[in-house]
Design goal:
Strands 1-4-3-2 form a four-stranded mixed sheet, covered by helices on one side. The protein is built from one helix and four strands; from the N terminus they run βαβββ. The protein is elongated, with a radius of gyration of 16 Å. By secondary structure, the chain is an alpha+beta fold. The relative contact order is 0.25. It has one domain. It comes from Bacteroides xylanisolvens. InterPro entries: Topo_IA_core_domain. Keywords: Isomerase. One of its GO terms (molecular function) is isomerase activity. This is Topoisomerase.
């Protein structure tokens, strides 16, 4: 089973529809080899270029 985490419930609903996860459970959708759930807000953010070892940006 593959798990997909969306940023918010409305996005999870659309992704679930597209991948065929039509069974609604408490906090997630399931079906066709997928579990689609959601968070509220951003889970990750990008680092500054030097955080990736890239130098020379102003």
């Amino acid at each position: 089973m593959k798990t997909i985490i969306a940023e918010k419930p409305s996005v999870a609903r659309e992704i679930a529809r597209i991948v065929g996860a039509t069974k609604r459970e408490e906090g997630y959708f399931e079906g066709d080899g997928y579990a689609v759930t959601w968070a509220f807000g951003h889970l990750v953010q990008l680092a500054m270029p030097d955080g990736y070892g890239v130098r020379g940006f102003v």
